[in-house]
Amino acid sequence: MGDFFNTVLYPIKLGEAWVMYAWHWLFDLIGMGTGWSWAMSIVGLTVVVRILLFPLFVKQIHSSRRMQLIQPEMQKIQKKYKGKRDPESQKAQQSEIMDLYRRTGTNPFSSCLPILIQSPFFFALFQLLNNLKAMAEGDPSHGTIGPITRQVAATIESSTIFGARLSDYFLGTTVTNTKVLTAVLIVLMSATTFITQHQLMRRNMPAAVLDNPFAKQQKVLLYLMPFFFVVSGINFPIGVLIYWLTTNLWTMGQQFYVIRNMPAPGSAAERALRERKRRKGKEHKELSVPGLNGAEAGGTETAAVIEAPKPRQRAQPKGKKRAKNTSKKGRR
Question: How far is CA 68 from the centre of its chain?
């Protein structure tokens, strides 16, 4: 199983090795120190990965908005079958929910796609950095990965930032600098994740959505995530923690932009956007989902523009002669 996993991840590791090497070359060219140039190459790698995943992020946003828009219909279905635990009712409820997804073109799993697709990049980088020491020592089971030769691996392995090596991790060292740096990175990772999820739930979710059981579970997870980072982070190399923190910062900034400019319908962020547009004299577009409330199914997400009342057509002026003829016709 381990060999299969390594085989699947190898193309990703090879790509990451080349991207990191290219960024390192650039940072080394401008005179950055060896340790910092390799650390910044991981930041550069993160930026490249997130840019590649951006189309999926846009798809995730549209899917999330659709899921929020169909919540009233979803709650109607749930209310209809509330308290009915027999197999027939459960099957009928599931059938109606799936039909709602089909009619509205909604996929409840689309919001998980960016995380799932980003996972192989994360694990590939973990393997790459975790195996640097074995590569540098000439372990035959860990050969060259693209430009990362034995000599390059030894250079990365020995390079430091704040006195800590990029391949070191909290539990695998007694060096104080490494423990302090990993602890700081783990705290920052936890804080950025909490802020990102908190602003999503506080500003970009309608009150109706926040009342359902799924949202309550998310709220519980929001406060459990820092503990997860503490338990897992102490086993990750510093380089991986840098990657994780960078992607968290990217997500936080990206989400702040989306919440401000593309908020979920009915959320506090949408009300703020509506008010900003009102002050600027602009109209606000109300989102609708095809296949919902009689809209045409099978299409893409549309926006129904709230039109201003049309002005009454002004009566055309009539000449005296034309008015007199019209009056005579009326008497006949």
Answer: 16
Half-sphere exposure at residue 48, Cβ-oriented, CA atoms within 13 angstroms: 16
Kindly state the tokens that stand for 272: 């703020």
pLDDT tens-digit series, residues 213-222: 656 666 677 6
Q: Return the pLDDT at 6.
A: 77
Give the C-alpha separation, 184 to 164, whole Å: 13
Distance from chain centroid for Cα 38: 26
Cβ contact 152:215 at 8 Å: no
Instruction: Give the closest residue to 51 by CA, choosing from 18, 19, 86, 13.
Output: 19
The pTM of the full predicted model, rounded to 2 decimals, is: 0.72
The whole-angstrom separation of Cα 179 and Cα 307 is 60
Which of 146, 147, 165 minimizes the C-alpha distance to 157? Answer: 165
Tell me the C-alpha distance between 95 and 303, whole Å: 28
Give the CA-trace dihedral at 231, 236, 242, 247, to 10 degrees.
-60
Q: What are the sequence ranges of the domains in the chain?
A: 2-70+106-270
Cα–Cα distance measured from residue 220 to residue 74, given in angstroms and rounded to the nearest whole number: 22
Q: Please give the helix or strand (H or E) that residue 91 lies within, else none.
A: helix 87-104
SS (H, E, C) 131-199: CHHHHHCCCCCCCCECCECHHHHHHHHHCEECCEECCCCHHHCCCHHHHHHHHHHHHHHHHHHHHHHHH
Other Cβ atoms less than 10 A from the Cβ of 186: the count is: 22
| C-alpha 297 chain-centroid distance | 26
pLDDT tens-digit profile of 142-195? Answer: 888 999 999 999 998 888 999 898 888 888 888 899 999 999 999 999 898 888
Match 């989902």 to its residue by tokens.
289
Determine the Cα–Cα distance for residues 273 and 296; give it in Å rounded to an integer.
Answer: 27
**CB of 247 within 8 A of CB of 50?**
yes
38-71 burial by CB neighbour count: b if 16+ within 10 A, else e? Answer: bbbbbbbbbebbbeebeebbeebbbbbbbbbbbb
